[in-house]
Amino acid sequence: MTLCSILKHWEIDLFPEATTNNAKHPQWGSRLLSPKGRELHKAMEYLKLDSVSTGKPTYWPTDKRKIPDTIDFYITKNISKRYLKTKSCLELSSDHSPVLLTLSSKVLEKEKPCIFSNKRTDWEYFRLQVEETLNTSIPLKTEYEITESIEHFNQCIQQAAWNATPLNSAKDSVNESSVPVRLKVAEKRKLRKQWQTTRFPELKAKLNKVTKSLRKMLNSERNQGIQEYLQNLSATQASDYTLWKATKRLKQPEILITPVRSPDGKWARSANEKADAFAQHLAEVFTPHPDAAQSEEEEDEIYRALNEPYQLELPLHNFKKNEVIKIIQNNLNPKKASGYNLITGQILQNLPEKGWKFLTQLFNAILRTSFFPLQWKVSQIILILKPGKKPEDVKSYRPISLLPILSKVFEKLLLSRLRPIIEEKGLIPNHQFGFRHKHASIEQAHRIYKKKYIQA
């Protein structure tokens, strides 16, 4: 008995059917592709069936040499995925995780990420809100006052951006038919009503003829609309990248959520267990290196030199408002990811005059007190799998830290003050290429080759 005949025997129509087998295919989130999976996917495509899964592993082998995989999923037909919601049940202790499916009578809205700005943000209203709520008379003499002023700035900017940004509501797509189609539909309904009343064979023949003509008109109009839609697609910014958005709506395979092995050798099934496994690994990685071998006398001498009074070095010059505006307007990427406070470069670039003034006072206060705010040290860590590494190992992921944008602005301003001093005094030796502007590793390799073989 073939898979097509089995699926036809199930008579799947407007109802989901659960399946548990060893048919593996990336279409429903499996890690591997098996012959049974290829045959099942081919049968589902022939019968126009859809697969619904969580993308998470459902089989957890006891053998440590094997890797979990997805083999439990649902098969549906004529049901939009906007009405379906799947969830893995991890309460059981067996080697299989059941998959729970919820079928709703309404469209299930996905949880959207919290953002403070989009293409519909009213920036004029945003600047007006900042002008009314931002207080520039806050004293900035102590560490506590600087910390409180940053919190005040974050709250004002977030509230103003939230008020100026309308919520994106889902729009119901309505296909408007042309006038000939609407007239043909009215004619069909009239004939159908007459035939249902009289049951004359002549009316039935006319009704079938009008129905066939209406079907041809609808197909022709639909094909014409598709052709016009495809011709207007473009991959440029002028059309808001309509080609990329159109491809995202196509039927795509389920994204595999890779399992992770805990340090104790067990599989981390839930999101909390994965977070604990990564947290334990990052806590070991982020441990500070031991200090270089040096005596206490050397350390005392360094601290004594730093704290010695009547030093001849003058303090750094204060930042000017034009410098702050130039850094934010020209050196910030508006699409760069923000930190935990969700204040992006685009929001900073649309600040009013009062906002520039506040930031200038804040940066100068930090420079004067030599206190770097604790809020700017809080980072949001995102883990990215390294190419060619095992996805189940926590050591195979590269941590990316997302810091607040304001901390990066201050670092750029401070670098503009430190770089002339470093170059003037020659504090960095010429043979150092790491962490230097316009000093790549390939240039260091050329320098070593020249020193050893050409100038030798």
Automatic annotation (TrEMBL):
GO MF: RNA-directed DNA polymerase activity
Entry protein name: Reverse transcriptase
Pfam families to which the protein is assigned, alphabetical: Exo_endo_phos_2
Sequence ranges assigned to domain Endonuclease/exonuclease/phosphatase in this UniProt record: 22-99
PANTHER family in UniProt: REVERSE TRANSCRIPTASES
InterPro entries attached to this UniProt entry: DNA/RNA_pol_sf, Endo/exonu/phosph_ase_sf, Endo/exonuclease/phosphatase
Record has Metal-binding as a keyword: no
Organism: Lasius niger (Black garden ant)
Keywords: Nucleotidyltransferase, RNA-directed DNA polymerase, Transferase
Keyword Transferase: yes
